[in-house]
Amino acid sequence: MAEAKVAKIAVSAATYWLDKPYDYLIPEDMQGKVTPGVRVIVPFSRGNRQSEGIVLSVSDHSDFGDKLKPVISVLDTEPVLTLSQIKLALWMHDRLFCTVYDAVKAILPAGLWFKPNGSRRINDKTVEFVELAVSVEEASELSQSKRRKAPQQASILELLCSTGRVPAQELLNFTGASRQSLKALINAGFVASVFEEVFRRPEVWNGEIQPIPELNSDQQNAFDGLSELLRSDKPQAALLFGVTGSGKTAVYIHLIDKVLNEGKTAILLVPEIALTPQMIRTFSSYFGDSVAVLHSSLSIGERYDEWKRVKNGSARLVIGTRSAIFAPCKELGLIIIDEEQEDSYKSENSPRYHARDIAKYLCAKSNSLLLLGSATPDLESRYSAQIGRYKFFTLSKRYNKMLLPTVKIVDMKGELRSGNGGDISAELRDELAENIVHGEQSILFLNRRGTNKLICCGDCGFIYKCPNCSVSLTYHSSKKRLMCHYCGYSRRVDDRCPECGGTLSFLGSGTQLIEEELHELFPEVPVLRMDIDTVKAAGTHKALLEKFYAGKIPIMIGTQMVTKGLNFENVTLIGVLSADQSLYCGDYRSGERTFSLITQVVGRSGRGSKVGRAIIQTYTPDNEIIKLAAMQDYESFYESEIQLRRLQMTPPFADIIALTASGQDENAVLRCCTDIRSTLRASIKDEYAKILGPAPLAVVKVNNRYRYRVSISCKIDAEIRSVVSAILIKFNSSGKYKGVSVFADSNPSD
């Protein structure tokens, strides 16, 4: 066979409607360097604009003859993508309506990419080490002879004689010697200097490795069944349904230990960055430095170095959030997705992937086990278990045999009638006071940050709204500013209504207002607030959680980040404020989200040796979802909700593809969506497919761009994907819809 001379390359400058593998000629001096998985610079379009590209394959011929543009330069000395990762990028392109390069950028860490000037965003970190180049005896004699004329050189030699190998900077700091003295010894051949790569580590385990925890009978039964799946020579998927506090993590530890002992690797995904510190601490105590951490709160250098540790095999267990699914694990044996029902596993930017779908693909290709774990599984996952697509395992009791928390529902309408206009009911106030007296801790959950949801005028009805988005501004008392949580716009609040001069009313409570109310109720009691505002100020979630744990702070108020995965033995009371806040948002998943949030946060109570309690405050105490969440009765909720999904023809009984158009001209966006609907009706032959819309998104305008959507309820197949792809190409490239952009998303989370 003739030597390969042609490379098929995915070009970063190619938009979705131009995206395809392009043939380029490999110059003779680059042959052997241009290989699959290597990035290159190529000329693109009529102007031959230089663009980055990734080599997908090489061959010895092209269907386009000899008139091919040549590769300009090679950026990598070795492939950054394996052949299996290239196939994954192509699979994502076909199913997620994104370009191949969008998929590649999701797979690779940011530290591997280049700045506009051509330099790497982050370089490998190296440390200079110094060691003797002569025997210890000779070095000792030299140090004695140099003691009078070159005392600094003598000090360097003496230290190296006793310690051997030392980082250069530490050597100079300890001896007080100058760089010039060290250089003189190197030039004379008495010592040698070498640069070695070191890894920027976010977490380094320095403690002793602990023995693997023992399992109780329920955990052992689940582990035995899952171990049987691990032994299969085919890909497997399982759902581990365990009540909050049932010890799912212990099962994970045993499975990971089994996989690592077999010489394979594992990935553990968690939904929130707040959970990773606890997970890292727990798993590092059993698996030491073989744990790698990947999430967005790390620096670019730390993420890049952790990725390299996984790639070179020194880290064999990856723990992280959504993007950790792309870790370059070799000999993959197990993927665990904890709290698998969480929306944070779905990407909102291109490529709009769900980590669970990527995990299914990886397990199918590597014949490994996918384990989904949750106390409130995603309805689609529970249905897959019901029909036998997933194996199903349950942990029905708490690992310490403690009972689930006792839960009371408080009707806030009754509080108003009794004269309590605050956000904390009399019953919750009394329970908080009791916990404070007994030295026990409490967590209050409210999924709204800021102080007040809106400020309006009671005389003329004026409401402060964002000029860029179709939302009211939220008042933050700590900054004394009105802020938009979508675009970041902020302004000061007026003393009187700017329209009529009337009195302004502050409505709708956020975490800041609850914090202020708690300080009024319990003036001497420390309160910790955990939301995105305080996390930014403290630096990390870990800092706040450790403060709550170590300082024994009596009360923590927080948003969704306090609802899952946290394990504090002294927390015995949970308060859910405004439990019905997410029930009526118009999304078919709103009931599922509300049930999950309430169940998860209630499960933070009573995880130690003390009995837990919870109070749910609501204006709709008779709502079935709130009642079932109070009883922690997932199976009854599932039976009710799955029947509703069947009637609605929503997942898992049908898929939803959303085609969203956005632009600054609302009429143009609506015309585009109307034409999309007409095209879909003419193109889709499936009689069971339903086309819905155009309909505005929940927040129709964000950053001065209007957003409308046309949805297809159907079973996604190759034909449907082809129709959607053709629409994206047509409507994004047509001059008729200039200024309007269209994208597609499968089963969107909003």
List the helices and strands and how they pair.
Blueprint: E1 6-11, E2 22-25, E3 39-44, E4 49-59, E5 73-74, H1 83-96, H2 100-107, E6 126-132, H3 136-146, H4 151-163, E7 166-167, H5 168-175, H6 179-188, E8 191-197, H7 217-230, E9 236-242, H8 248-261, E10 265-269, H9 276-287, E11 291-294, H10 300-311, E12 317-320, E13 332-338, H11 355-366, E14 369-374, H12 379-386, E15 391-395, E16 406-411, H13 412-417, H14 426-437, E17 441-445, E18 452-457, E19 474-476, E20 481-483, E21 490-492, E22 504-509, H15 511-521, E23 527-530, H16 532-538, H17 541-550, E24 555-558, E25 571-576, H18 590-602, E26 613-618, H19 624-630, H20 634-648, E27 655-663, H21 666-683, E28 690-702, E29 705-714, H22 718-733, E30 741-746
Parallel strand pairs: 9-14, 9-15, 10-12, 10-13, 11-12, 13-14, 16-26, 17-24, 17-25, 23-24, 25-26
Antiparallel strand pairs: 1-2, 1-4, 3-4, 3-5, 6-7, 6-8, 18-22, 19-20, 20-21, 27-29, 27-30, 28-29
Helix pairs in contact: 1-2, 3-4, 7-8, 18-19, 21-22
